[in-house]
Amino acid sequence: MKSLLIKDTTVSERAEIVREALGCESDCEGVDLSDMYDDYIYGLKELADINREFSEKHAGSVVASDLRKESRCSR
Question: pTM higher than 0.85 for the full model?
Answer without folding.
Answer: no
